[in-house]
Every structure is written in C-alpha cells, then in structure tokens.
Amino acid sequence: MKKFKRILGLTTIAAMMLTGCSIAKNNNSNGTHQDKETIKIGVNMELSGAAAGYGNAEKQGIQLAASEINKAGGIDVNGHKKKIKLIIHDNKSSIATSASVGIQLATKDKVAAIVGPATTNAGTAQIPNITKAAVPFISPSATDPSFTLQKNGKVHPYVFRTCFQNNIQGENAAKFVTNKLKAKKVAIYADNSSDYGTGLAKAFKATYKGKIVDSQTYSAGDKDFNAVLTSFKAKGIDAIYVPGYYTEVGLIIKQARQMGIKVPIIGGDGMVDPKLAQIAGAQNATNIYYTTPFSTRLAAKNPVAVKFMTAFKQRYKVGTSAFSALAYDAVYMIKTAIEKQKADDSIKLTKGLANIKDFNGVTGKIAINKTHDPEMPIAIEEMTNGKVSNSFSVK
C-alpha cells in the first residue's frame, strides 16, 4: 500500500540524491552470491514511525517462515541444504532511510533477496539501487498499480509483490456494495494524502452501479470528521466507502456511529489492524466491511493457511493478519524460486520469482504474471462488535 504522501518533499529529494551517489559507487551487474552454508535474505521494513503497524506484522510473518524453513533443514540448493540468515533493518517509515537500507542490504550485506518495504513510497525509493545491484525484492503490501512498472510501461526487472493492486480492491468493493449490500446511494470519503486512498476511490467510482451522492476527502492525521459525516447523513445514504488507513477510518467509524449513522461502512486492506476496533470502539465497529487478500475464516479450508495460523498463534500468542500472511508467503516464494533454479545467486533467483506458477501460499494459489504482480484470490470480511463475523469470497 502507498502510505502518507505527506512524507515526500525533502525526504524524496534526499533519497534521490543518496540513490544517485550510491549507484555510481556500487554498480554490481553480476548480482550477489551466497556462501556455502547460508542464504542471506534482507528485510527493509517500517518497524517504527507512521507505518510501523504494518511493518511489524510483516516482520513476524518473515521470521516465522525463516524459522520453519531452517528447522526443516533449510533451502535445497542443487542438493545442498542451506540455512536462511535474516538481516533486518528498520527504515523508520522514511523514504530516505528506505533508500539507504536498500543500498546497505544489496551492496554491502550482499543479500540474495529483500522482503519489504511494506509501503509503496518506501519501496519505490530502493528500486534504483537494487536494480543496479541486480538484487530482487518483494513487497508484501505495496498496492499502487504502477509500483512494479517503469515510466515507459516496462516492468521493473527486480521488483515483485505478493499483494493485489489498489484498482482490484476498489472494483471488488464496488461490486460487493452493488450486488451484496444492494446499496443504491453511496457517499465516498477518501484519504487524499496517499495514492492508496485516491486509487481505491477512483476504481470504486468507475465500477459502482448506483448513485454516488457525494465524494469528499480527508488527510492523514485529521481527527474531526463530523461536518462531512453530518452532510452525508442528510443525503439519505445507504453506505459509505472509506478507502484509507485504520488510524483515520477508526475515528470516522466512531464519529459516524455516535451521530446515528448505522449504514455499512466499507474500505480496503488499510483497515486490517486490531487497532481499528480499539479506535472506533468495539460496539461501533459493526456493519463494517473491507477487502483483504487473507481471511482467517476462508483460510480454514486451506491446509497451508491452517498450518500457518496455528504456528503463528503458538509463536506470537495472537491471531494473524493479512500483512503477516503476505510476508510469510514472500519468504516461501524466495525458497521456491531458489529451489527451482537450483541456484541462490540473485540474478537466477530473480528469474525464478518471475516464473512462479501455482504457488500454494497462505493467501491462496498464486501465479506471478508478466508485470510481476500476483494473480490471487480476494476476500471481503465483515466486522461485528469489533470482531470478524463473516467472510465473503470474491470470484
């Protein structure tokens, strides 16, 4: 997902300057190579700062996958088992820091691959350097449609993701609101501080078959949404579509319910965090829906997901999230790519990632397409009293 556009500006300029200098010093077109006993996997993740909730959830999934693989003997590289060594860095939800972490991992630590960052802006910042170093990275949650593409429309050769794009979320939310909720009059209240919120809103508008009676925006960090919600209430809406992150969406839900708005409130995977219900209040978090790549209820039918959820609960003593699941799948995709290529150098590993088909992951069966995006299932979860009460599979 693309988070907090407001952190662009000077940090972007700094990242670009840092990137340019580093490329000149660290040009390694031969990729990276691993030692005889270990395979280094880098983690460039938002472990502090604005997006830390997502980054820490993903780190848990990464660590669980690596520990499982090592316990089972490691990754088979042409008949020789090698253990994973994770090298974890906090990019502090900063574009400039993410760029420097990418440089460190690719050119100094010489990892075989990188998992993360979680957000589109932070992930984009490391692309020039990892491309020069010929080291692939997988973002578990960068959902901007153009993330894996260059400005000329060609795919970034070393950029992959395990999550679906914003437009897919917006389109499926609109179909759900139309066909399942039967809502004929909808208001949209989108986060305009990121391409995540605006991208979902655009896709929703293009697909929804009913009447959009109003479309308003807010910014990350806003606290008071009462004026806009009052105007929505006066227009007799059947539902509100709120593409954004749990920090603000939780407050929007709380304030909407306090003024007597009881209609369904629908959003995207930025709502997938336990803090949503804490912010909104459990009783207020009823008749709430969001698109997600991973539903624990639907996952009960998937043996890979059941194994993951059980292991996650045992290790961390809490239930899992979509972000942990996506990151977990990313590590196993790296393992699959190495074993199919029978090599762990970064260039051959990249080829293996691009050729992944019928990967049985926690989030379902995944195939990487020509734009390095996953073709995968999507689900919608319903919340009642702050807990997931129902799940819907979207075909």
Automatic annotation (TrEMBL):
The keyword Signal applies. InterPro entries: BCAA_transport, Leu-bd, Peripla_BP_I. SUPFAM superfamilies: Periplasmic binding protein-like I. Residues 38-385 form the Leucine-binding protein domain. Residues 1-24 form the signal peptide. Keywords: Signal. The keyword Plastid does not apply. Pfam families: Peripla_BP_6. Belongs to the leucine-binding protein family. This is Branched-chain amino acid ABC transporter substrate-binding protein. It comes from Lactobacillus bombicola.
